[in-house]
TrEMBL record, chains A, B:
Mg(2+) binds at residues 40, 143, 145, 331. It comes from the Bacteria. This is Alkaline phosphatase. The active site is at residue 91. Keywords: Disulfide bond, Magnesium, Metal-binding, Phosphoprotein, Signal, Zinc.
Amino acid sequence: MFQYLLFFTEPTMRRLATAVTLALASTTTTAANVILIVGDGMDDQQVTIARDYLKGANGQLLLDQMPVRSAVQILTVEDNTEGKPVYVADSANTATSLATGAVTSRGRIATSAGDDRDLPTIVELARAAGLRTGIVSSASVTDATPASFAAHISYRMCENPELMADITYSGIHLGHCQQDMKANGGAGSISEQLAVSGLDVLLGGGAKHFQPTVEGGTESVLRSAQLAGFSVVRSRDELLAAEPGERLLGLFAPGTLPVRMRGEDGREAEAPRPSLLNRLHQYLGSVELPEPMRCEPNPEAAGIPSLKEMTDTALQQLSHNNERGFFLMVESASIDKQSHERKPCGSIGELEQLDEVLASALDFAAQHPDTLVLVTADHSQAAQLIPQRSMFEAYTVPIYTPGKMARIITPEGSIMGVNYATNDFGYEEHTGANVPLYGNAAAEGRVKTFQRQSELFGIMREFLGL
Amino acid sequence: MFQYLLFFTEPTMRRLATAVTLALASTTTTAANVILIVGDGMDDQQVTIARDYLKGANGQLLLDQMPVRSAVQILTVEDNTEGKPVYVADSANTATSLATGAVTSRGRIATSAGDDRDLPTIVELARAAGLRTGIVSSASVTDATPASFAAHISYRMCENPELMADITYSGIHLGHCQQDMKANGGAGSISEQLAVSGLDVLLGGGAKHFQPTVEGGTESVLRSAQLAGFSVVRSRDELLAAEPGERLLGLFAPGTLPVRMRGEDGREAEAPRPSLLNRLHQYLGSVELPEPMRCEPNPEAAGIPSLKEMTDTALQQLSHNNERGFFLMVESASIDKQSHERKPCGSIGELEQLDEVLASALDFAAQHPDTLVLVTADHSQAAQLIPQRSMFEAYTVPIYTPGKMARIITPEGSIMGVNYATNDFGYEEHTGANVPLYGNAAAEGRVKTFQRQSELFGIMREFLGL
């Protein structure tokens, strides 16, 4: 049979061989797998904005077709051991909840609020039990969400050995991780920890965090990862050519991966422009709302592997000759990052990427029935779907957002208004609403209609028998 | 047995008698009932804000404990027969979707977009099949949500006979319903239609819309309702004393019912106050955020029946000696209205009222197993749960919302930030996100994880066998 396959082209053969492997695996193994897909900042506003653009107001994302849907309560606390509730979270504390089952304070990576204990992660538990583990992200792999699954540090910005003693931005001291430095008995920066994490697959951005020299050593963090057994891939071609069974570290950009989509000519949300008279009184004068715009492909994303391509490779590596199962976390990071920067087309494209990853995960689960697929967000975000012209325009006074808005021309020919108005800073705030959770059939009976984010850890752990 | 009851106080006796009636009914009837609870503007932000305040960050509303949870896609279109999608809805078109299964344009009450056809409502179908019907709202009963279940008109503001030919506000012409005037062959204003609707129970606010004289007649709309068989109650005491079996019209305020809760000393969300230097450049100077505040009971609500009291009376009237079943819609209207006015404590109190109504509905369903309880929102709203101080405050520049915010001291002793920033007008905009749907056990297998708002009509209709 395999002799026949030799007449096919290389990629076709590889796909067929993989299919055969998968088919054999599904009949011969009892491996349990968990695929956790995290849409960073993917709240119901973001999902609806993306659905309206990608599928139309009447349409459905693949997400919407999942058999299990629930809501997740996001919890975080002040940074002390008996910390009071804080009502808006960040990606560090929320990923820590997903990865460890603990509620911690903002900015922490798998460490406890106040007393800074390392919290065991599901990746570590899975590894200890002989399962394979993988992390895929469209952010730097050292960013808060991926980091929380395989590193422990008190402050998310300590992403490489040069960002440990003092993190400053424009001369402003933001924090440090001196207690985590190896010289002080710690495990070092996030990239240093990831390099020796034992992960089987780690794919995303963040190459710049692997260039510095490891603390107390002479080689780069990247070299230390290679010494620890990682094969390093740096391009889409190298990724797609990866041999099954390799332990893969893929770094496809210096930092966050370029996003798929952007506003026409790079436009983002803009401030409405009131006339001079309107500045005197809100009912006087007129206002010019931002011109409607289309979304377009982001030229910077050319040659960057898609989140689905990274996920497909990860699934191949993790499932190849694996009788024990795996844990894989895939993050679509820039739903959040583009919302911080008031770029609605960017968020839409990254939600599309997440929906594609879900298709891959469901295909895999169809061939490997003992696979739990969960999709959730870590926290809600600033963007709001608002009327593209005020609901109250009959009042014939200038009415407009005090923030910034985009008016997006959708493929079905209507105009969608997206508002960003949580602050006047360079980055919008997160918001605190509960977020959606979606599951495949394997989630039925395991997921309640409403639960704490930290409880998802226990659900995944139990599914994997850890 | 009933002789014994005479020794109890009147209210106790009535409660016991009701309990006996309910118990007998549950064993002797196969009536199917639907209780639809609508939280106007009750999106995931509003639910989380209310949960954090009422139950704590770790707590749960009764809503959160429902066995069925789903998401609802909100649809509306331009006002022509082939209208393109519009991405943000209002309470008129959304209530029309729930009541009739049709997607229509904003502002319409159970009439079709463009060609203005009357759309049969679930209340009318239920009545025709011999079921009882009831509507309870904390808005005027003539407001968009209740009206859409039992009236047909092209424009929601035509609430009484004096608001038909021309509706103006501060000299601005907003619309009219001339084609719906009786003189032109129409059915008249909303209050006129409700008066002769045949509803068994209609409770809420809006007394002022029943004072005008009916078009072409000499009596008031209220009198026409009495002539059509309604017993009119005007106070909480009269409501609680209603005899089972009466057809009840209850009007407890001139317009919207006063809400349960308000900000300390009537405070609402306020604009942050930047220093003069900060007006020159966003990174200069300082900003004074609104002082934290508590929520307090609204003194204006004294003596007004709660939404739960109205619901309990409605359930009593609808179920008394009823072998065929009923349809009841209960709306907590001011989650939305208080959000329009940037009053977070108001919205929280009205969500608390909704949760109490749900408790009554579930109690009733426990005694009458063939009762479908659905809770949903009509559309999402402007309020956002944001950090009470910016997530980026380490940057030491003034960072604050361009809109208005409240910083609410919660009973668990933390501070919650609520932002309103969709426009600079007197009323915030709606938003367009999909909204939650909750169901009791009777909803299992009937409700998908994601569906169009208009599909809920079919689910209720099928449950009632209409």
